[in-house]
Every structure is written in structure tokens, then in C-alpha cells.
Automatic annotation (TrEMBL):
<dbReference type="InterPro" id="IPR050608">
    <property type="entry name" value="NmrA-type/Isoflavone_red_sf"/>
</dbReference>
<feature type="domain" description="NmrA-like">
    <location>
        <begin position="4"/>
        <end position="303"/>
    </location>
</feature>
<dbReference type="GO" id="GO:0016491">
    <property type="term" value="F:oxidoreductase activity"/>
</dbReference>
<dbReference type="InterPro" id="IPR036291">
    <property type="entry name" value="NAD(P)-bd_dom_sf"/>
</dbReference>
<keyword id="KW-0521">NADP</keyword>
<dbReference type="InterPro" id="IPR045312">
    <property type="entry name" value="PCBER-like"/>
</dbReference>
<dbReference type="InterPro" id="IPR008030">
    <property type="entry name" value="NmrA-like"/>
</dbReference>
<keyword id="KW-0560">Oxidoreductase</keyword>
<dbReference type="Pfam" id="PF05368">
    <property type="entry name" value="NmrA"/>
</dbReference>
<protein>
    <submittedName>
        <fullName>NADPH-dependent reductase</fullName>
    </submittedName>
</protein>
Length: 307
């Protein structure tokens, strides 16, 4: 079977670049839509050169340029959007272009986090998740074949500090535990998210489904993360527990956007939004079960690099 032609939007970003590389590595004809201005940015220009050298076709355009966008879409079968979450509503232009192109067999919108339909913090997330919900409903209303990717946390976001906002490395003496420390979060490395995402592209089992990632060895509570880190550094940390009420006050008193890490922590490690539901009964599929051949980094292996 011929592999689908894949267009990556946001290929000069962190996840987008990994998605493009994973698509090329999986032998998909790979295209990257890139803004004209990206060529003037040394870091982005280097990524564009790397992708081009690896075999990607570089197309110039942007979500607000409908003519260029439709022309790009007509060259491919699958489009994966990896623009920043705060720009999620810009995908309205992409959805309109997908309908005009009439050739897209699957759309993977920019989600790559918690399931926006499952989180229970609406009204306090500054539309971070509600805008993603709006895009889901529009995709479904337009009858566009899709797959939603819910990979939960990237390892580079909170795990580098052991879920300690304000720190750049894990603590060596004291650790703050939010809530009772028992709710479990999920962490996946960006490269691994990309590999699992590309695996879905031609898989009928993931069509019009949510694919979640809950890899064994990557689903831990704050108490468990602390114990893993203590075993690696050979030292017990002094623990301070912050109650739900105290965390909510902290969120309220901290200005936006500095309070967003605390909001994500509240959702995952107090409310338990990443793991409170059963995947199968909610109509989803789990990536590591579908693709056991995909190797991934574990939390323990990632923390080893920080010792």
C-alpha cells in the first residue's frame, strides 16, 4: 500500500519538527508548510534546511493565506497541525481550506496535551482547552475525517523540574507536593509523541477516534515521582504539601500567564484529569497498545539525564 502524503503545519516548531522527521523516517512523502518569514529566522531556517535535506518538500504559505493553503492541501492526503495551543482557533482557516481542497483523508488538529473534552477546569484555563473543544466540534460538524492525539504532558514541560514551578532542574533538598500527591500524571517525550502520531496516519483503527498515550513507566503521581528521584540521588527530600484550597489561592493571586503551570498542575495532579477515565469505554484507543513496536523513553530514563 502506498503511504499517505503528509503535510505538517508548524514544522519549524519543537513538536512540528519532530513530526516532520518522524514522517520522513516512516517513508511518508512529507511536506512542510512554512511562512516566508521563517527563512529569515536562523533557528527556523536551519530546521527548514535539515528537513529539506532529509527529503521533505518545503511549501511556502500560512494559515491566513487561503490560496496557498488550498494549493498545499491538494498535494497531500493527511494534514497534521502543530501550531501553538494558544493559536488553536487559527485552525478555523485550515478547516475551511480542507473543505475547499476536498482531498484530505485525515486531519490531525493541534491538540497534543490533555483531552479538552475530559478536563474539569473549564472557566479557569483562559480558553486554553475550550478553544480546542471548539475546533473539535467544527471538525466534526464539517464531517472531516480526523484523529485527535492526547499525549498529556511533554517531558520537557514539567518533568525537568519534578513538577516544581520556578525551578529549571529537580530539587535536591525540598519538594512541594500538590494535593495529596496521589493523582497520576502522564509524561511523554516529544520525539515519541511524534512517532506514535505518525503511526496513526494510515491506520483505520484510529480514524475518527481519540488516541491517548499512557505508556507503562510514564504514569506517576507526585509522591511516586518524588520517590523515583530520591532513589536516583540517594537522598530523602523534605516534603511540603500544598492543599487544593491553597493551590487555588496561588492560581488566583498569580497573574496570567505565570499562573498557567499551576493551572496545569491543578488539573493533572489535584483533579486527576489525565487518568480519571477509562480509555476504551470513552471510545478512545491507547497508542502503546496499538503500536507496541514504537520504542519510547520512560520517566526513569529521562530523570537519569538530570542526575
Amino acid at each position: 500500500m502506498d503511504r499517505s502524503r503528509v503535510l505538517i503545519i508548524g514544522a519549524t516548531g519543537n513538536l512540528g519538527y519532530h513530526l516532520a522527521k518522524a514522517s520522513i523516517n516512516a517513508s511518508h512523502p512529507t511536506f512542510a508548510l512554512v511562512r516566508d518569514s521563517a527563512f529569515d529566522d536562523p533557528q527556523k531556517s536551519q530546521k527548514i534546511g535539515s528537513l529539506s535535506d532529509a527529503g521533505a518538500v518545503i511549501l511556502k504559505g500560512a494559515l491566513e493565506e487561503e490560496k496557498r493553503l488550498v494549493e498545499a492541501l491538494k498535494q497531500v492526503d493527511v494534514v497534521i497541525c502543530a501550531i501553538p495551543s494558544k493559536q488553536a482557533l487559527a485552525q478555523q482557516n485550515l478547516i475551511r481550506a480542507i473543505k475547499l481542497a476536498g482531498s484530505i483523508k485525515r486531519f490531525i488538529p493541534s491538540e497534543f496535551g490533555a483531552d479538552p473534552d475530559k478536563v474539569r477546569i473549564h472557566g479557569m484555563d483562559y480558553n486554553f482547552y475550550s478553544s480546542k473543544v471548539d475546533i473539535r466540534r467544527l471538525v466534526e460538524a464539517e464531517g472531516i475525517p480526523h484523529t485527535y492525539i492526547c499525549c498529556n504532558f511533554f517531558m520537557s514541560v514539567l518533568l525537568t523540574s519534578l513538577v516544581q514551578p520556578g525551578l529549571k532542574t529537580p530539587p535536591r533538598d525540598k519538594v512541594t507536593i500538590f494535593g495529596d500527591g496521589e493523582a497520576k500524571g502522564v509524561f511523554v517525550k516529544e520525539e515519541d509523541v511524534a512517532a506514535f502520531t505518525i503511526s496513526t496516519v494510515d491506520d483505520p483503527r484510529t480514524l475518527n477516534k481519540v488516541m491517548y498515550l499512557r505508556p507503562a513507566g510514564n504514569v506517576y503521581s507526585m509522591n511516586e515521582l518524588t520517590e523515583i528521584w530520591e532513589s536516583k540521588i540517594g537522598k530523602k527530600l523534605e516534603r511540603t504539601y500544598i492543599s487544593e484550597e491553597e493551590l487555588l489561592i496561588k492560581i488566583k493571586e498569580t497573574p496570567y500567564p505565570d499562573n498557567m503551570p499551576f493551572i496545569f498542575i491543578y488539573s493533572a495532579f489535584v483533579k486527576g484529569d489525565l487518568t480519571y477515565f477509562d480509555i476504551e469505554s470513552s471510545g478512545g484507543v491507547e497508542g502503546t497498545q496499538l503500536y507496541p513496536q514504537v520504542k519510547y523513553a520512560t520517566v526513569s530514563e529521562f530523570l537519569d539525564t538530570l542526575v
